[in-house]
Design goal:
Number of domains: 3
Strand content: 15-25%
Order of helices and strands: HHHEEHEHEHEEEEEHEHEEEH
CATH superfamily of the largest domain: Periplasmic binding protein-like II
Strand order of the largest sheet: 4-3-5-13-6
Low-confidence stretches: 295-300
Mean pLDDT: 89
Oligomer: single chain
CATH architecture of the largest domain: 3-Layer(aba) Sandwich
Length: 300
Amino acid sequence: MRHFVAVAEELHFGRAAARLNMAQPPLSQSIRRLEAGLGFALLERSSRRVALTPAGRVFLDEAKRTLAQAEAALRLARQVASDELAEFTLGFVSAALYRVLPEALRSFRRRFPGIRIRLEELPTERQLESLRDGGIDIAFLHPPLRDAVDLEVQVVDRDPFVAAVPTDSPLAKTARLALGDLADQDFVLFPYRQGPSLYRGIVTACRQAGFAPRITQEAQRMHTILSLVAAEMGVSLVPQGAQTLRIDGVAFVQVDGIPQALAWELAMVRRKTDRRRALLQFAEIVGQRAAQKRPRADGV
């Protein structure tokens, strides 16, 4: 049936054989066997052209539906097999490693030691692509997201920004500084593709403070960003949780003037249609950890 669809779409045995990575004679024999089994012709052949018979046109539509159903059955079977094997792939940005993700992984592995989790560090947009094409099963990335109607998105962490400055800088001698105090500094920042919305938010906040940030260095990993700050290559705005990395040569200073709505957010994202038990169990643990860290209504 796959052979027939290839020939019917190409209307050329040579091109269809190349598409199927097979020689032309076996392809021709395959189509003849199919027609013999059906009892009627699907193709009209001549030395110059190949055309579909009326029956062939009808059969082509049904063959495509049959093949699509077969592929769907295979995907479902693989999903069930994956569930039985209890394995899934998790994508993450480096910021996920500060608080929520390590605690969730530790708790999950203690409760379900037989379930295997594969980890891949990827920027936000690459995670979205991989999530949709099945490369990863759950993503930890920076919101907000566009065109996410097919995805389940849950913000699991929200961290305010602090300034990371070299310890020898005069900026490190104060407990607090205004965002505008960074106007004359070189900036070290993550690449735009790693978190487009967050990147735009930082640049917009700086412009509202009266300056355009002079971004002279980019780095994907927070450890690298802080190391570049320690090397006096510039300053950076980083999540408060990054202080746990404790890089020598870096001081963290509270910043006034950053819009309250701007924070280093982390979201957990899954396909709405993926209901595998292991995946749902992990998402539940992450949600519980996030709820424990969320401030109460009284601000405590």
